[in-house]
Structures are given as C-alpha cells and as structure tokens.
Design a protein that fits this description.
α1 links the parallel β1 and β2. The strands form six sheets. Strands 10-2-1-14-21-20 form a six-stranded mixed beta sheet. The protein has 15 helices and 21 strands. It starts with 6 loop residues before the first strand and ends with a helix. By secondary structure, it is an alpha+beta fold.
Length: 427
C-alpha cells in the first residue's frame, strides 16, 4: 500500500487512463501519463474528416454514468452544459417505441410500457412480468445464457423494438450472442438504480471537449506530466517498484487497449496477456450524411435494422446536439456483417434506409456521406467471457473497458476500472 506521495505511471491516455491520472493526482501522487498517439481520448475523441470536425463514434451516455459525470465535474465540465438530457426514449420515425416519463424508475418503466401502443396489451404485460422476474432474482441469471435466450418468452415485436436495440446499444453485440448476465446488470443500473438513472445524455460537445481536453489542462495545472507520441517500449520490475522505459515508478496503471497491454505484459504476466489476447471484438461504423434543412423529431431516433437490408440501429441529428444543421449520424453497432460486405455496399444500404425510414422528414437530397470505422470498438460481450483482472502484480494494475467487471465496454466501465485501480494502490 502507498503511504504518502508516490510516483505513479499511467500508460495510455484514453478515458480510463485519464481517469486513473486524475484520481491518482487527487490522492496527492506524482503522475506521469504516457500516450502513444499525438492526442488524448483513445476511441472517444474528435477527428477531422475532409475538414469537418467529427467524433470517431457516436457515444450515448445515461444518468447511471455517475463516475463519468463526477470525473467531468472534477475537471470543470458541467454535465448540464455538455449534454441534452431527456428521459429514456427508444422512439422510431413512425412515433412508436418506448418512452419513459420522468419520476421513480420502476414506476416510470411500468407507465412507459403500458403507454406503448405499438404492442398489444398481452405483449406489454408479458414484458412487465419478465422484468418483475428479473428484479426478484436480483437481475442475476445463468452466466451461460444469451440475451436472446433470456428474452425468448417475449413477443417478436418487443424483442425487435426494445430488447435487440437496447442490447446492441449497450453491449455492441447482437442479442443472439450477447451475455444475458451483463445485459441484466445494465438493465438494473440503467432502469432501476434511482431517479434519472435511465435518462439519455446526448453530447452537444465534441468528445474531446467533454473530457480529454479539459482533463489535460487540469492535469498540467496540477503538476502531472503528459508525454504524447510516446509508445512505451518496455515495462520491467525493479525490486518492489517498476521501470517504464528505464524510468523508476512506485506503481503503474496500464490503461491501453487490450492488445497493447498484452504486448507489454507478455514477459511479466503471460497468463494475463493470453486472456487479453483471447478477447474478440465488434466494430462500429458511423455514417455521416448531410441533408440541408433536415431536422428530426428528436435528437436521436431508433431505426429498424437487420443484417441483410438495413444496417443502422440509430440516427442522431447533430443540428440539435450543438453541431452542424442538417448533419445526421447513422450508427451501425455489431457491424461485422456489414464490414464484411464492404463500405460501398454499407453506404448504399444506409442511404436507402434513410430514404425509406426518414422519407417523411427529409427536406432535400442526402449528400456528402462520410464514414468512420472503429474496427475494435468494443470486445464481443458473450456469455461466460473470461476478461483479464485489474490487479496484475504488486504495484501493477490494469484499467480499461475490457478489464474484468460487471459492465460491458462502455466509457463508464473504463472510468470505474480506473477508479478501482487507484483505490487498490491507496490506503
């Protein structure tokens, strides 16, 4: 355990690394942050595409992201200014879909389900009965179950309209392959953790402005060292301490991708490295399209999708989120089948989907499509998945959305893993 000020190295400058650096600095330790890229933010940052400032993925935050919100406040970002906040809505262009009213989560869920006119009363009551059963079992289930198996008793309409889009949005894994136990943990914390936990928080700032930029300024003011464009080549033990590229540190938090962490740790912790290497990944594709004069009924709409004809599960109106008017972002999660088809086919299918599903809202032609692929956006969250632990060796910890824990690959999961790593090395 640490006593007093210690030298802490944080390897990786994504959201987990930034969280670890901030937490360690708050504890009074001397922090050095190493980041191999030229900018901070990892897989949640701003990128420039053909002169247009975009995010490298469209992230959805929810009210249950308490540690992420706390971290943002610490570095001077007020979530009230940074997000458009609404009760949970999974609304489709035709107006159907689940919309929760404000208030107590359990009551709001019951009211929202009963008000969903796209389902029969029998379908609504069956969903409420299933949710009650999950609650009675403390939102725990057999770890071998998939989400599709867990919800097989629900109607196809409920699964298509609610379960599947919620699953792919939260776990980035199709329900036929997704872990039911992780899904239930998300449902518990999002829908039933407390007032506002299920609220949608849609960023109206670029991702870099939400945390990486303010965090860098905060860390530098606090005396932390940030070394960009520095890929750590070697991590070695030195008595009870560690050396990072020869420099001595009392403790190290590795907050890189699983692949990069595995490279660094293979000589030190081969079993940890092998577990990390066994993870499989799901891509996310974001297609940005401009439609002059376009304004959706809501900042975010759900879209009916499948693996054959319609790729995108959600569309975001950036004109309502602090961005450029008429700029739409179509998000394709669990995108491997479409990546395999190639981007030409994916773009054509997305534009056709937009015309078919948003035709009543379009005010002109769709043009200037741009696309971004995050090939390893998240680990594939399957049943009984073995994830590497956060504690590796004395004084050596891992942080990241892939580290063993109850959550899927989310920004909140990344931040919480970093908080746990710093807690583990402080008394």
């Amino acid at each position: 355990m640490l006593r007093g000020k210690a030298a802490v190295a944080v390897i990786g400058g994504g959201w987990a690394g930034l969280a670890a650096a901030i937490e360690a600095t708050l504890k009074g330790h001397a922090v050095t942050l190493f980041e191999m890229a030229a900018q901070l933010g990892g897989r949640a940052r701003r990128v420039d595409v053909d002169g247009l400032a975009l995010d490298n993925g469209q992230h959805i935050f929810i009210g249950a992201y308490t540690q992420t919100m706390r971290l943002m406040r610490t570095v001077g970002v007020d979530p009230a200014d940074a997000f458009v906040r609404t009760p949970l809505r999974l609304t489709y262009p035709d107006g159907h879909g689940l919309q929760l009213p404000a208030g107590s989560p359990m009551v709001a869920f019951v009211r929202g389900v009963l008000a969903q006119r796209g389902w029969s009363m029998a379908e609504r009551l069956r969903l409420l009965a299933a949710a009650s059963g999950w609650a009675l079992h403390r939102f725990e289930c057999d770890g071998a179950l998939t989400v599709a198996e867990l919800t097989s008793g629900l109607s196809k309409a409920v699964r298509d309209d609610l379960v599947d889009p919620l699953c792919v949005a939260a776990l980035n894994t199709p329900s036929q392959a997704a872990s039911a136990s992780v899904f239930l943990r998300v449902v518990r914390d999002a829908l039933f953790a407390g007032p506002g936990s299920a609220d949608l928080l849609l960023p109206k700032m670029r991702l870099t402005e939400l945390l990486p930029g303010p965090a860098a300024q905060w860390l530098e003011r606090a005396g932390a060292q940030i070394r960009l464009s520095h890929r750590v080549a070697e991590l070695t033990p030195s008595g009870s301490a560690w050396r990072v590229d020869g420099a001595p540190f009392d403790h190290v938090v590795i907050a890189t991708t699983a692949v990069e962490a595995g490279r660094l740790l293979e000589p030190i912790a081969p079993q940890w490295s092998a577990t990390a290497a066994a993870l499989r990944y799901e891509p996310i594709v974001t297609v940005y399209v401009r439609c002059d004069g376009m304004r959706l009924p809501q900042p975010m709409l759900a879209l009916r999708s499948d693996a054959q004809q319609w790729p995108a599960q959600f569309v975001f109106d950036h004109g309502q989120l602090g961005g450029s008017d008429g700029l739409l972002a179509f998000v394709i999660s669990g995108a491997q089948p479409w990546v395999d088809r190639g981007m030409a086919a994916t773009l054509a299918a997305t534009l056709d989907q937009a015309q078919q599903m948003l035709g009543g809202h379009l005010r002109g032609a769709l043009h200037a499509p741009r696309w971004l692929i995050e090939k390893r956006a998240t680990f594939r969250c399957t049943p009984d998945l073995q994830r590497p632990p956060g504690r590796i060796a004395p004084g050596l910890f891992a942080a990241g959305d892939y580290v063993k824990g109850p959550y899927p690959a989310t920004l909140e999961g990344a931040v919480r893993s970093a908080v746990e790593a710093i807690r583990a090395l402080t008394p």
